[in-house]
Description:
Elements: H1 11-27, H2 40-63, H3 67-73, H4 76-103, H5 105-126, H6 130-138, H7 140-168, H8 172-179, H9 184-198, H10 200-205, H11 209-217, H12 229-254, H13 267-295, H14 302-320, H15 329-354
Helix pairs in contact: 1-13, 1-14, 1-15, 2-12, 2-13, 4-5, 4-9, 4-12, 5-7, 5-9, 5-14, 6-7, 7-14, 7-15, 14-15
Amino acid sequence: MDAVPANMVNAPVGIIIFMLGGLAGAVFYLPFKKVKGWAWESYWLVYAVFGLVLVPWILTLMTSPNVLSVLGSAPKNELAYCFLCGAAWGFGGLTWGLMIRYLGIGLGLAMGAGLTSAAGTLIPPMLKGSAAITAMFTTPAGIVSVVSAVVSLIGIVFVGMAGRSKEGELSEEEKRKTVAEFNFRKGILVAVFSGLMSSAMSFGLQGGPSIQAAALATEPKTSVIWAGMPVLVVVLLGGFAVNFIWCLFLNIKNGTARDYVGKGLPILPNLVFAAIAGAIWCSQFICFKTGEPKMGPTSYIGWAVLMASQILFSQLLGLVLGEWKGTGKKTRWMLASGLLLLIASAIIAGIAGSL
């Protein structure tokens, strides 16, 4: 997004858009609590159909009138790259739960989200070549944006430490429930795989410059704000392929395909709530792509803001729901420190954009 007109750049607005995306990523799972009688793979498949295909494509067709011609003429290697990055994210998401199983919520969150945030923020601009790398560490905007990413990472670590400390305050019975299969060696290996693979979503979303340029130039032209939508639908299609195959496999293996037609099950409400979850989920990446133009050359910092905001709002939601009730001062201090650092990272990112 380096060629965005100067009058389009508005860093504070960009940060707000990214943070709204983080909010969507933090609350998307709430509708799942209303799903009754379905196996995980059944409602996750509905979520994937709506969140990864239907909602983004409907919005793209509404906002990008030339999307079909743009994708039809796009470089095949660029389309493949975006698709495969989405597929890699799909594998990362599927192994996220395994990471939590081996490391626990606190330590798993710190490592997985930290790797996703750092890799997804710093690697994409480096892939653009030596000039982009040099700009990151020599220009005021670049240096401040790197500082923002580092502060974000430290904040994520503090939140993870708070989660780990919270686990330490549980009774032995509760401990066994949450980290019964604790295995640091396996957990680290899975965390590295899951975190890096999940960060591929950022690679894909920032990996279609020719597609976005064509969306801006091909009649009928797509506006700058929505130019990233053709890239988004390709990346999400890659993620959908992995999620669809896995959920379908589990439906067959576990005999849960009957969930969609089973008598006595609230099929319509389950479809609606799973679809709502999917629509909310994809909103975070819609915000990511529409917020990029507002950041100008420092648009890559949006991934750190998105990830930090997601963790920030999820922890605030946890406070409201009483998930931190009964924890000690040390745990609350670490949580408060992490949340403050995440807020600070967003402010610093805004400063970077204004530079």
